[in-house]
Amino acid sequence: MSYEGVLEQSDSGLRELVEAGEEIIGYIYPHTPLELILAHGFTPSLMRAIPGITSGFEESLQTFACSYIRNLYNQRTNEQLPPISGLLFPGNTCDSLQNLTDIWKVRFSEDRVFRLTYPVTRYANDDSAEIYLTKELEILSSTIESTLDRPFTTDNYERAVSLIREFRLDAQFLYAARVVDPEVLSYTELARLVRSFLSAPVTSVGSEIHRVTLLVKEKLKSKGLLGIIDSILSGLQKKDLSKVNSFKPPSGPRLLVVGGMVEPQAIATIINGIDSVDDSILILDLLSFGFKSVFAPPINRSGNPFEEMAKSILAAPGEPTQEGLRYRMDFLKDLVKALHIDGLIICEQSFCDPDQFEAPSIEKAASAAGIRTVRIPLDPELSDRARIEVKIQTFLESLGIS
Ligand code: SF4
Question: Does ligand 1 lie within 6 Å of residue 352's CB atom?
Answer without folding.
Answer: yes
